[in-house]
Amino acid sequence: MALVTTKKMFEKAFKGNYSIGAFNINNMEIIQGVVDACKKHNSAVILQVSKSALKYAHPAYITKMVEAAIEETGLDIALHLDHGADFEICKECIDYGFTSVMFDGSHFDYEENVAKTKEIVDYAHSKGVVVEAELGKLAGVEDEVKVAAGNATYTDPDQAVDFVKRTGVDSLAVAIGTSHGAYKFKGDAKLDFDRLALITEKLEAAGFHNYPIVLHGASSVDQNAVATCNQFGGQLKGAKGIPVEMLRKASSMAVCKINMDTDIRLAMTAAIRKSLAEKPEAFDPRGYLGEARKDIEAMVEKKIVDVLGSTNSMN
Predict the structure, then answer these.
(1) Residue 162 a catalytic site member
(2) CA distance 114 to 167
């Protein structure tokens, strides 16, 4: 049991045609719900933290809670910064003991994205930490990420090869039609699997064998959780995510990491709304937060089995 990088996780996932779940965390109950599900299924896991979550929970609390989760479950866990905006926040997380960081320079022009990513890769690698970067722009809203649908751009396969060559980045988040937040599609979901296959093919031809691809904005937005939220006072109308079968197909290709944040938020909020509505006299946070923890655990179990295929990936 240890705090590890994603390197070996991704090597095994690529060869085994499955993905590792990357679940966003910001409090104890979320961490416990995620890792308890992973322990049941002997699944590798990435716990990731956004800038907003760092501000909310503080880096020292996050790292100590993750260390406690490792000690209690016996799992190997990667602790990852999600959507790092600049060198300073990436360095801060590396210095706090994170084993993986993502630098999101997708909003910069290409050459600036290359230069800034390379700077972070050089520092991270000197500390034994791996780096994820993003090429292309995903639509949607989640924490600091706000991209209008009209400004979303798909990842160019040739540019992906050049980017990996010049930056030395360890994994690449690509844009193939996923979207941040709970409102991903107005019509039918569409993912560009041909583009995904071509990116992998070109990376392979360039000598980047078994190169790990990452999908952001990949929550399926469980409709039962949405319905429960709405039943007990929520107003989530038209929330729609990525169909499970599409995520499973991506997992069987080169996608080694699938990010899920919205699904955790929905599971937690639905459980809390239901608990407080059914027990209006209750005021002990352990009651409704305990219910939330159970529902997060059940949701993550379903992801491991139905989407990720990562059961027994710790073996």
Answers:
(1) no
(2) 6
